[in-house]
C-alpha cells in the first residue's frame, strides 16, 4: 500500500531501541482516510473467503479493523485487556505480552461473539514479535473458529513475528514491511533494491 | 437516530445497578455500518462549523469517532489512558473517573496534536456522569482550542452528565437518550409520550 508506506517513511519517527513512532496517523492521532484504504486493501485480499467477523485488540487495532469490517459488512470484535463489569458471562481468554510496554495483559472476548462457524480476519496495527496476533489466533482456536488471514498495518520484518505466524499456518497480509530502523532511518523491505 | 434507538431497545441488556450492556454492537462487538451512520449523523450536525479534529478516548470511543472523522476528512485523536513509551514529548493531561469501572485514569494527549487553532468535536460512546466528556473538554481548553460540540452515542438522561456539559457551555448531540433502566427494561426519552 504505497500511500501508507510513504506516510511511514515521511512521518514515522525512529526512537531508541528500534521503536517506530507513528502516532501522527496510526495509534494516537489517526488518519481516517488512510485507515479506510487499509480496510479496503485487507477486504480486497480476503473478500472471497466468506469472512464473518473481524477480530482485533484494543485500542490501536480498532480503527483499521472497523474500516475492514465496514467493507466486509460483518461485525468487528475487539478483545479487551481488562474484564469490564458488564461482561458477566463466559469468556475466552489468553495472556498477551507487549515488549514495547513491558507488560502482560489478560485478554478476553465473550463466548457469545465467537463460535465454530466463524471465519475470522485478525487485524492489528503492528506486527513485531507476533504476541498479539498469536494471542488473538489462540482465542479463535478456543472458539473452534477458522482464521482466514491476518491483516497487519505495519510489520517489523526484522523481528520474528511474521515467521511465527507463518509457522502457525496463518496467511499474513502486511501493508507496510519495515526491513530496518537503523541510525534513526526507516528502511522498507525491497527499498534498497529499487 | 432511529436505527440506533431500535438497536438499543432490542439488543441492550439492563444489568444490576442501572448499567446498560450494549456490547453486541457498541463496545465489544461493534456494528460498523451502525457506527458509520453515527459518524454521518454527527457530521451532519457540525459540518458547517469548520471542524479540524475529532477527539475521543480509548477504547470504545474510537469506532464512532473514526467514522465521524472520515466524514469530516479531519484527523481523529484519541486520548490515552496510559502514557506509552513512544510518547516522549509534552502532553496535556487530566484525570477521568469511571463510576462503572470504579477507576480513575490519568489521561493524556500529545501537545503536538491539539492547539489553539483547532475546532474540535468530542465524541464518546456513553454519557452518564459526564466525567469522560468533561475530561476531554478540559484537554481542549488546556490547548486553547475550541469545542464546537459533543457527540454522544448513548446518553443516560437520568444521570447528571448532560446538564453538566450544558452548564459548561457545550453543545451536546446525543443520538439515543435513555430515560430509565428500571425493572430490566430500557425506556427511551419521549417513548411514553408516543
TrEMBL record, chains A, B:
User: Per UniProt, where does 5-phospho-alpha-D-ribose 1-diphosphate bind?
Assistant: 128-132
Under the heading CDD domains, the entry gives:
PRTases_typeI
The entry marks the following residues as binding xanthine, namely 20, 27, 156
Reactions catalysed: XMP + diphosphate = xanthine + 5-phospho-alpha-D-ribose 1-diphosphate
Residue ranges constituting the Phosphoribosyltransferase domain according to the UniProt record = 33-157
Cellular localisation: Cytoplasm
In short, the EC number is 2.4.2.22
Q: Quick check: keyword Lyase in the entry?
A: no
Instruction: Tell me the InterPro entries matching this sequence.
Output: PRTase-like, PRTase_dom, Pur/Pyrimidine_PRTase, Xanthine_PRibTrfase
State whether keyword Zinc applies. Answer: no
Identify the pathway. Answer: Purine metabolism; XMP biosynthesis via salvage pathway; XMP from xanthine: step 1/1
Task: Could you list this entry's UniProt keywords, alphabetically sorted.
Answer: Cytoplasm, Glycosyltransferase, Purine salvage, Transferase
Gene Ontology molecular function: any one? xanthine phosphoribosyltransferase activity
Q: Name one Pfam family in it.
A: Pribosyltran
Task: Give the quaternary structure.
Answer: Homodimer.
What name does UniProt use for this protein? Answer: Xanthine phosphoribosyltransferase
Gene name tied to this protein? xpt
Amino acid at each position: 500500500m504505497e500511500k501508507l508506506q510513504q506516510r511511514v517513511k515521511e512521518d514515522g519517527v525512529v526512537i531508541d531501541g528500534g521503536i517506530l513512532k507513528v502516532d501522527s496517523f496510526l495509534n494516537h492521532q489517526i488518519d481516517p482516510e488512510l485507515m479506510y484504504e487499509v480496510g479496503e486493501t485487507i477486504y480486497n485480499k480476503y473478500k472471497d473467503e466468506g469472512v464473518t467477523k473481524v477480530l482485533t485488540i484494543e485500542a490501536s487495532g480498532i480503527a483499521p479493523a472497523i474500516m475492514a469490517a465496514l467493507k466486509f459488512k460483518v461485525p468487528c470484535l475487539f478483545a479487551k485487556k481488562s474484564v469490564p463489569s458488564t461482561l458477566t458471562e463466559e469468556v475466552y481468554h489468553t495472556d498477551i505480552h507487549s515488549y514495547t510496554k513491558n507488560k502482560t495483559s489478560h485478554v478476553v472476548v465473550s463466548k457469545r461473539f465467537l463460535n465454530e462457524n466463524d471465519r475470522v480476519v485478525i487485524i492489528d496495527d503492528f506486527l513485531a514479535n507476533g504476541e498479539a496476533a498469536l494471542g488473538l489466533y489462540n482465542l479463535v482456536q478456543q472458539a473452534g473458529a477458522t482464521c482466514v488471514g491476518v491483516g497487519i498495518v505495519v510489520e517489523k520484518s526484522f523481528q520474528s513475528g511474521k515467521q511465527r505466524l507463518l509457522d502457525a499456518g496463518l496467511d499474513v497480509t502486511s501493508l507496510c514491511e519495515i526491513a530496518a530502523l537503523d541510525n534513526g532511518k526507516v528502511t522498507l523491505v525491497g527499498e534498497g533494491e529499487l
